[in-house]
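Hi R.,

Here are the chain sequences for the assembly we discussed:
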Amino acid sequence: MTDVPNSVTTAIPQTLADLAIDESLLGDEVVTHAKFQVVPSPVGDFAFGLITLDNGFDHTKPNTFGPKGLLELNAALDEAAAADIRGLAIVGKPFIFAVGADLTGVPIITSRDMARGIAKLGHQVMRRLGDFPVPTFGLINGAAMGGGLELALHCEYRTISSGAAAIALPEVFLGLVPGWGGAWLLPNLIGPEKALQVIVTNPLAQNRMLKPQQVLDLGIADAMFAPADFIEQSLRWAAEVVSGDIVVERPEIARDDTWDQAVAAVRSGLDAQLHGAAPAPVRAVELVAAAKTADADAGFAAEDEALADLIMSDELRSGLYSFDLVQKRAKRPVGAPDKSLARPVTKVGVVGAGLMASQMAMLFVQRLQVPVVMTDLDQERVDKGVAYVHGEIDKLLAKGRINQDKANRFKALVTGATDKTAFSDADFVIEAVFEDLKVKQQVFAECEEVVSDTCVLATNTSSLSVTDMAADLRHPERVVGFHFFNPVAIMPLLEIVRGERTDDATLATAFAVGKSLKKSCVLVKDAPAFVVNRLLTRFLGEVTRSVDEGTPFEVADSALDPLGLPMSPFVLLQLVGPAVAFHVSETMHDAYPDRFYVSDNLRRGVEAGITGIWQFDSAGNRTVDPRVAEVFVQGDAPLTGDEVRDRALTALAEEVQLMLDEAVVAEVQDIDMCMILGAGWGFHLGGMSPYLDRTGVAEKTTGSRFLPKGAASVPA
Amino acid sequence: MSRTVRDVVFVDGARTAFGKAGPKGMFAETRADDLVVNVFRELARRNPSLPLDRIDDVAVAATTQTGDQGLTIGRAAALLAGFPSTVPGYSVDRMCAGAMTAVTTLSAPIMAGMYDVAVAGGVEHMGRHPMGEGVDPNPRFLSEKIVDPEALLMGKTAENLHDRFPQLTKQRADAYAVASQEKTAKAYANGKIQPNLVPVATRSAEKGFGLATVDEPPRPGTSMESLAALKTPFRPHGRVTAGNAAGLNDGATAAILAEATVARDLGLTAKMRMVSFAFAGVDPEVMGIGPVPATEKALAKAGLGISDIGLFEVNEAFAVQVLAFLDHFGIADDDPRVNPYGGAIAVGHPLASSGVRLMTYLADEFAEHPEVRYGLTTMCIGLGMGGTVIWENPNFDGKKA
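And here is the predicted structure of the full complex:
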């Protein structure tokens, strides 16, 4: 009960100095303390050790582990090893178990040895729970992510609170692997298929989390108890395990071909999705593959190496940069006026009742929970729009996301009218009519006849000038751009456009509404196509140009594969719709004829009614749509994939620099955030600029990097 | 429609361990409502044949009904415990007899046929809610001499009781207190107390979570000598000390009550049958005498005499108040029928929770003593009251001991 095998204890650094880390570099670590107490068993005449993890803050600052916290945990384990106990349990603070490594410490890790040291320290401390002389129990009372969940995995048994939120191994999402034991322990606990789901697939699916019931069903936890008396019932259960009254049976993990098949399936999916652009998921799959035969020593050692490599990779540094953008910068938009200037919005008008307008109406109803009135030219369109929203509300009801009362409330909030006088008491009117300046000017002029002097007039235009739209109004200061991305309900980005005369109160109101809609808002200048569409149009133009010059479709479309984009250029074209994409390219060409390409081939394709370049058979295999082949006339100067990519990236670097010169956004960080949240460009790219820096394209094109070394890359 | 009076049975009772109030007490950072929730959930687990939606009402007593003892804690705790939202609840206050009043107030509708099953309990976190927190006594109490100035300080009323009954000496009070500690220690050693204690995870920012499984207040080994050395905080050269009175404590209790046939149909135990109850008022400055008239009333309603009572659970707010009761009824200070498992002087008295603690003790004593037919639970109450509930032992076998 008191002797921990020497091989485990002696190897653990006891001080920070042993880690070769200068303590002055660690000033910011919020230390998660490990508090050890001996507690009586709820049943039976013996005692448990209970370690509480608590950084001293409330749940808004969750427990994390840096070197100091790990050493504290190690000291608590020493205390436990010396105590007269028959079981050891570890629990978090209220609502939080632990959410993993303290990632704020990563920027100061400047060498592979340091990275490996941290990886190893985590293993050395946490694995003591697996090698402990008495049974160990992870009491997952709340959020458990990354190293937090791994800590629980090292325990012999786990219980989970049915009220625990956010259970995950999200390392791969950021650019790491579960390298404090998770990549070896989890497949050995629940098998490779389920482990890969948790370690690789979920993180790459918008970082999907597990619900407590799933944690139980997957076999990660052995028992689940209600939050009301979770610790008490967990300890009672643990006591019965200790006494032998409860025997935990886990399914045998088959170490045969099925293991390799599970790995191969995920690996091929990854290749198709990311083309090796992000190293973390690949390393994670390798670790799970090796866990089939590796023992703990070998498995943990392999994790150390993987972590050391990844911590010192630009992709991980870009991932952390991206995480910071979407977690912090997105919540405090740079350049937004003081929020106290925002006016209350108690009723919303939507001009138009088409699909985009209806999606917006639904979002306003759901998030703002104020009356939303849609107008259109005739009753039939209006009815269709309202019916769409009612249908969406019914879907929420059917899924159990809202109850009948809430559905009734939402439905009553949405109405339609053919006359804009319905906007007379609205505080915020947004238009989503045909993308034509004259039409939009006319709409706003009509609105101004009925609305109050302070009602915000917002436009969802994707490329027209907000300033021009406001020019002839009595109150041009109330006009603001409010650019959603499709599908409105899902895409998190909102570009908020300040026209030349937009006043602070209007802008503040727009930001407040955007926040209520749970969107990430970015302030952009009134420049053609703002941020995302400008960059994607420039980029698509270069790829299309290469095809027009003679590059085969397949070569052009796969040229960007090494970036691991969410979709290839021509699949993006198909999603946007060739007609819309062509229209935008013309608009942009008008603004910047030297840089934005208008493809005659695409014009002919649109006229021929193509819906995309590719057609797909039922197996998902792509071939060039025959109508495309018929109308596209290609030149005789084909490029290689590398050349296409170089041209596209060079164009992007040039465009980013021009946007910064034009002050379209405050800083390049806003461009990266827009690409992550509006275009789905990966964390491993850091959005856009870190990748352009990393590949040297930025320096070659503009003469300098966009970000200093170390900001989204390994420090010099 | 004709009505018949129905029988109320005490199905089961449980409690948290009692803690010492104050920053060093084990529940210092644990919420009062969480204490109640733990007991509710344990009762539900221990009585799995009770469909929770059959609970017609929940009453929880607390003397101070603000903060974590506010928000209509009977209802709030039921929701927090995961009882169905269809189960209603309310709060009760009769100071020390809060939980006892919760029991009697829920029993009447069971007797009358309005309720079938109810949950009664009490809580007092005297660390988070010191006695007298937020009270604003009407100045008329004093200006019109409605109560004596000393009536609102319980320790002073205990000293007053010593004055009224000079034969109740400090010596007797201390001897009674020593016996209470001894009986508690013995009951613990014999495993009598533990089965009805609900483990509670205790929060401490400094020490981390702990687990409260045993009462914190008892001082086993207390001697006459050690008690003699204690200060008399309520009066110079007085008689009432921290040693011959209950302390300031944190804790919660709860019990399931049911109509007798409903209990049987649901497969619930019937540990006690309610015979009668009564509350009575006395001069507030000698509130400790309250159990005497309350017991006389309850006996009269039951048609019983004091000699019919085979077990007494008398709350020990102060030793002198128990002795006043015993003297009145001609019972010896060390009569084995009185508080066989010890009492509040040892185990603690989290005001509004104690009534159900007495009943839970009596229920277990009934099981141990099938030769006893009747027992009673009684307690004194601030502002000059007493309360008594008389119970019948379902295990009674008709044999003389």
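The CA atoms of residues 272 and 564 of chain A lie 9 Å apart. Chain A has 29 helices and 19 strands.

Let me know if anything looks off.

Best,
T.
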